[in-house]
């Protein structure tokens, strides 16, 4: 076996490692969620006659299913996922149509957001978020030159997002629609779209979003109650005023785990949308800082992994990391902001912490994808290091892609220069041209 064959065998045997910081932050948030759901849902379960630990058991079961799905995502090569990029977008539209099918869709309080799976209900938008992020990542890989240079390539994902948003508003689900629009805009900016060109759709979209709030009475009531919840404390401001009282009672170190008063049938949705208020009441300012710090670590680490992937020309993996970071970062920011009275009330859960089977399972899948990105990035870095070590002995000119130089002919003519081919794992999918414009992360030129 020659040197090149031995090196290829060594490269194939190299594995990667899952990012420990990402894993630790996700596990810490999941464990905190189990504790807090158990604490916040006791009174709710007893009041509904289903038992004090009903919601805790459901949350643990859904978390177990989510961990199993995350394990599948962690073991799936990203290039396998990328092959189905066209089917992913179709899947988003099919999922959002399912709640309208007779016998399958479920209406709760006038909203059609769920489908009946027999053992439980599933909120389809949670799956749409992760599927859309993967499709968006594949689109930015295939058209990253055009997205940076032409109007049609930039407007296409915005048009797709607009159709999905209209379908979400029909349910209605204004919070998820806004989140999806934010993810689209953020991924386009991180994918290298020209910022002055991007400003035009933003200028058009903002008045439309304001109109959707102004001309819908219940949304307008939420905005006005958010500005002054005490004006109608027993009406439109009931949720926020009780949330603020819970946060105020927590002070520096909280009233103690399990000792919350507001969760005793005063604070609505204490185990889902307003679980952050229960955390603030029972664990105080210290607990609030811990939760926010864990989310900052998780999102920051995901953005770091995305940047490293782009630097190594693993664009698909990088854009997935960017998309998941934007999703978890924005959703957690909105959830915390709603509880603190900084934002109008929205039905968005706190990722990995709030009770809610659909959200818990799909967030676990997103974390699994992030861990797969970290695994493949670490594997690529180790392979590059091995190539660099073997370059002098084997005659490999470049650390990642170069082939061995051609053997000189028996004539006096000099040997032709070595042909350099791009390694498929490092370059991702090829576009229609031979050169690539690398992302500028929202350049102005």
UniProtKB/TrEMBL annotation:
InterPro entries tied to this protein: FtsW (IPR013437), FtsW/RodA (IPR001182)
N-terminal signal peptide: none
Localization per record: Cell inner membrane; Cell membrane
Keyword Cell inner membrane assigned: yes
Keywords assigned by UniProt, alphabetized: Cell cycle, Cell division, Cell inner membrane, Cell membrane, Cell shape, Cell wall biogenesis/degradation, Glycosyltransferase, Membrane, Peptidoglycan synthesis, Transferase, Transmembrane, Transmembrane helix
Predominant subcellular localization, coarse grouping: membrane
Superkingdom, taxonomy of origin: Bacteria
Catalytic activity: [GlcNAc-(1->4)-Mur2Ac(oyl-L-Ala-gamma-D-Glu-L-Lys-D-Ala-D-Ala)](n)-di-trans,octa-cis-undecaprenyl diphosphate + beta-D-GlcNAc-(1->4)-Mur2Ac(oyl-L-Ala-gamma-D-Glu-L-Lys-D-Ala-D-Ala)-di-trans,octa-cis-undecaprenyl diphosphate = [GlcNAc-(1->4)-Mur2Ac(oyl-L-Ala-gamma-D-Glu-L-Lys-D-Ala-D-Ala)](n+1)-di-trans,octa-cis-undecaprenyl diphosphate + di-trans,octa-cis-undecaprenyl diphosphate + H(+)
EC number, UniProt record: 2.4.99.28
Disordered: annotated segments: 386-445
Pfam families registered for this protein in UniProt: FTSW_RODA_SPOVE
Family statement drawn from the similarity comment of this UniProt entry: Belongs to the SEDS family. FtsW subfamily.
Name of this chain's protein: Probable peptidoglycan glycosyltransferase FtsW
